[in-house]
């Protein structure tokens, strides 16, 4: 029954040889691997606006938002250029954990691993929350069910990934292409209408004429928020192996195409938002992108609806990339003994089931704590992402300096500049958004590192204790077999017969509660007891456990190199309710002995036919 | 820790030799054994009044209640006289179950057993509910907590009885003597004041001038309600052994004293209730006895309070008698294999713990269902009591006719008259109160009988299957020992060494998930594997379970008279959280094999030191 339900939900088990790598052409690799990065435009502009709006109407009217966006796009191209080098250096896939561990050492690798763990979890939470927000923007009456909708999204992704969804490449390309179609239409139509007839929007929320001053800190905070646009940039360099040969070249080209698309969309949306005068809604009932689409497509509302659905679709696809990425990271870290080894193995559908479940659990907790609010989640997000950018590029710089290949000076320069830039942004992220939630991550990452170390230490120590050395010899261990004998019937006889085959030293042990029973037992013993000695222990307090444990303690010390095997006879009734009619003393004894040293228990079952 | 809590709550275990019978002098036997019967006066009069009041003011004004009470007292003396004969015939204690089973056969014995089971449960529920009602009569603001107070009462009795409370005889005599002092004071002062100055009460509830006609049915219903006064009459005859020698004579005398006290109090209270004109309160905030005491002792309210506390005390004592009686009945019926055998043994405090817990559970369920309302519970009560009276006396009549001892004709006559009278009352109970709840009992008693039979049948069939016959011979069984070998380390080596001592046919079984692991295993095997053959199974679906089960099925059929022993190596980590870092595959395998036939599992544990 359980098996059937399992099969329907997750499909039949897949044999190991099915795990051959499916190689992707660029036209599929782009939408699948770039969805995480490109989908960020759904929330990045809004994050900048939410800070700038605090500075009042003048700040909104000035081109503050487009200029901040431009700065982020510059940073994006720095990082992309730097990651092209990683792609060529690590054709097997160069995630921040591997690069940092290889080139900087375990401690930095672990820091990157912790940052990535946080990052993957937040990608799921933020993308799903943002996808749900895109839908709520067109159906505002769904707003009260925000958290439930997010959790259903996580559940669907979890089930899909437990089944193993990799095979359907084309289906996964559609959402990205749909989003690109919608987003570019929005830009073209929006820019055209803006420059001809002009577009404007009634402010959805009153903007203070004079806000707080637009200090450097506030600008940095807005910049830090907008950096959410860059999340997911690393995805392509992690998955070079997924490309068709020449892998590195194809991956590198795809990365640059992705950066161009992302940069164009992000800049365009920020520009339109400024020109139209969009103000973000505090209560989150409509996203900035939705407001732009609503006014741009006021002549064709179905286009607005299409943009929203496509946004939701690409965001869910973005969340899905974490469901592939985190379990793979967990498996690699488990191989290196930093993660519990349950994360190492693939399940019977060739997916890392434990990693999928752990990710779904962590993301659900975040969604519940932050009420599925994208804006509340984002301050936690970018610190981890930029920390891993920094470590990865720093690692690459060190690597190039060490290898001194042709042109190494340029490579070191590119990686170093990228590392310094993203390192500065990491600090900006952590400080400007510290009170908004970044503090949690600042505490969480070192904590995770310590946990990874503790796990590692345990496995290493365990390995040292379990490892066989030349001193270890194979020495057979002999047995004192003790059969618990409350009475003598067919079930007990079978246990005695079994015990007789195990050892030369078999004893039957009877704990006397009622002397009448003992007399009956002795009488039967003479007839059916074989030549097994019967030991009778008194139990003045009618307990079965205490005298048994005392006897076993003594028996343990009789000889060297002997183990005690306790044989517990059981009979298995034919019907389930019959079990209620028997003392569960066998189970109780077994449970008690489970925690005793140097005692092995063996239950010999006798099946009753009716 | 758990052990300490246990000891504080229930006391230290008691050795078996402490179970010598404490013999009671009459002056202690009376209050302890008669509390159940005598306490019935706390609610019996009220039960009559509640029916008579339906017939309107004229029926209350006429001496209906005293005359019905008189009829019940006559019946009481018939039953008491009849039970004197039981006491002499069964000096070892003659409960209805034993008497009916001995003289009428198993089916009647079981019916009596079922009736008594219902009876004991209701004694607890009714007595506690009535005791709580006595307290609420003086503190009406406690009325909303009725159910909670009842459950606390059950809990206290349960804990007390699990500790074993028999030793404190004198403490148990006090409530009865206090109640007798209070009740007789009430009668004497009440009758005196009534016949000199007169007493009257303002009707607490309006009585209809013209009610429904006082038909024979209504009178019978009132009579049936009042019969609650007789519950507990059998207690003394069940416990003849508790008396000092000459046991039967002392018990018989005590029974007659009890009947006289009960009869006097019941008649007196019913008479006073009529003369004063008490009307029962529908909402149950004050009992009839409390109303009488309030008006009788209006010059000394503390006497009223005393009567109420004493009433509560004797009722709790009455409930306590069931906590001694039911577990003893359950143990006797378990010995006869009609009850689950868990009820047979005494626990470490020399009490039948399972019987006590079962009774407490059933009584609590009743209290919750009927909201702790005495009046709602009583219709369920008397059917069982009178059914057991009938069966007991019928059994005695049959016994006397069979034994034909001197004077047997008189004895047969007394028992027969008693049996017929109580038999008729049983039918009256079942019919007049059918819709008030007696229907439940009418269904429940045959259902219980069927359950008892099913239990009996199971034990007999099981005994036949397990019993050794001359054909059974002691034939040692040999072993195919299979050691599960995921890898080779010290923990596995120990399991292999252990297995080597068990049998000549030991095999190590490795299920291949990753060929790299297999190669490593084979390399180590040559060095440390002893001469044990290593069997390697492929698992294309990476499952450990399926290939193992297939292999075991084959191995089973290799030879006759062999069992398969599966040795599962385990290592036990030093810290609890280390367990989270290891696959629980050992546990999973053990659980799977638990339900396979002809396979014994043995876990060999290796303790890791740090």
Task: Please tell me about this protein's structure.
Two copies of one chain form a homodimer. Chain A has two domains: 24-460, Up-down Bundle (Amino acid/polyamine transporter I), CATH 1.20.1740.10; 478-607, HUPs (Rossmann fold, 3-Layer(aba) Sandwich). Chain A is α/β, with parallel strands linked by helices. Chain A is elongated. Chain A has helices at 2-10, 26-39, 41-52, 57-61, 64-89, 96-104, 106-138, 146-163, 169-196, 216-226, 235-238, 247-276, 288-296, 301-335, 353-369, 374-403, 408-432, 434-466, 490-500, 515-528, 545-556, 585-593, and strands at residues 478-484, 505-512, 534-538, 562-572, 599-607. The first copy, chain A, has a five-stranded parallel beta sheet with strand order 3-2-1-4-5, with helices on both faces. The mean pLDDT of chain A is 87. In chain A, strand 1, helix 19 and strand 2 (505-512) form a beta-alpha-beta unit. Chain A has 22 helices and five strands. At the A-B interface, helix 18, helix 19, helix 20, strand 4 and strand 5 of A face helix 18, helix 19, helix 20, strand 4 and strand 5 of B.
């Amino acid at each position: 029954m359980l098996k059937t339900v399992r099969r329907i939900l997750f499909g039949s088990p897949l044999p190991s040889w099915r795990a051959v790598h499916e190689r992707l052409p660029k036209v599929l690799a782009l939408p699948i691997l770039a969805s995480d990065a490109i989908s960020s435009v759904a929330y990045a502009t809004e994050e900048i606006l939410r800070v700038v709006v605090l500075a009042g109407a003048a700040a909104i009217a000035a081109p503050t938002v487009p200029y901040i966006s431009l700065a982020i796009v510059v940073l994006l191209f720095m990082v992309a250029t730097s990651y092209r080098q990683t792609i060529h250096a690590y054709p097997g896939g160069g995630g921040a954990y591997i690069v940092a561990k290889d080139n900087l050492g375990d401690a930095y690798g672990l820091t990157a691993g912790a940052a990535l763990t946080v990052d993957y979890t937040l990608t799921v939470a933020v993308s799903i929350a943002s996808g749900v927000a895109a839908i709520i923007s067109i159906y505002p009456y769904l707003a009260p069910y925000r958290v439930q909708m997010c959790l259903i999204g996580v559940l669907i992704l979890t089930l899909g990934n437990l089944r193993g969804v990799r095979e359907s490449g084309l289906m996964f390309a559609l959402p990205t292409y749909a989003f690109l179609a919608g987003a570019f239409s929005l830009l073209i139509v929006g820019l055209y209408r803006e420059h001809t007839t002009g577009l404007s929007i009634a402010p959805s929320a009153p903007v203070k004429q004079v806000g707080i001053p637009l200090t450097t800190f506030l600008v940095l905070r807005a910049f830090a928020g907008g950096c959410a646009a860059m999340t997911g940039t690393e995805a392509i360099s992690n998955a070079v192996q997924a490309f068709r040969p020449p892998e590195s070249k194809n991956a590198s080209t795809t990365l640059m195409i992705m950066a161009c698309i992302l940069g164009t969309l992000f800049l365009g949306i920020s520009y339109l938002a400024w020109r139209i005068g969009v103000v973000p809604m505090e209560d989150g009932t409509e996203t900035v992108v939705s407001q732009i689409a609503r006014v741009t497509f006021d002549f064709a509302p179905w286009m607005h609806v299409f943009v929203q659905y496509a946004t939701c679709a690409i965001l869910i696809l973005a969340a899905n990339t974490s469901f592939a990425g985190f379990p793979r990271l967990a498996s690699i870290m488990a191989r290196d003994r930093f993660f519990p080894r349950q994360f190492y193995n693939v399940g019977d559908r060739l997916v890392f089931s434990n990693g999928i479940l752990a990710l779904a659990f962590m993301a659900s907790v975040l969604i519940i704590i932050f009420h599925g609010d994208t804006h509340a989640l984002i301050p936690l997000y970018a610190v981890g992402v930029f920390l891993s950018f920094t470590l990865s590029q720093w690692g690459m710089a060190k690597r190039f300096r060490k290898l001194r290949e042709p042109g190494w000076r340029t490579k070191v320069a590119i990686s170093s500049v990228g590392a310094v830039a993203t390192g500065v942004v990491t600090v900006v992220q952590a400080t400007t958004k510290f009170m908004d939630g970044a503090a949690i991550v600042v505490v969480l990452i070192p904590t995770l590192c310590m946990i990874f170390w503790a796990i590692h230490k345990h496995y290493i120590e365990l390995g040292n204790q379990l490892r066989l050395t030349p001193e270890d010899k194979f020495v057979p261990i002999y047995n004192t077999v003790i059969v618990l004998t409350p009475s003598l019937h067919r079930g007990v006889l079978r246990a005695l017969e079994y015990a007789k085959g195990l050892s030369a030293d078999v004893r039957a042990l009877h704990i006397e509660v009622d002397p009448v029973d003992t007399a009956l037992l002795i009488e039967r013993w003479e007839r059916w007891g074989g030549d097994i000695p019967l030991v009778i222990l008194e139990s003045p307090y009618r307990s079965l456990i205490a005298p048994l444990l005392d006897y076993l303690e003594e028996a343990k010390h009789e000889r060297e190199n002997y183990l005690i095997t306790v044989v517990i006879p059981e009979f298995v009734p034919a019907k389930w309710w019959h079990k209620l009619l028997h003392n569960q003393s066998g189970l109780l004894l077994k449970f008690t002995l489970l925690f005793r040293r140097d005692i092995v228990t063996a239950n010999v079952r006798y099946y009753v036919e009716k």
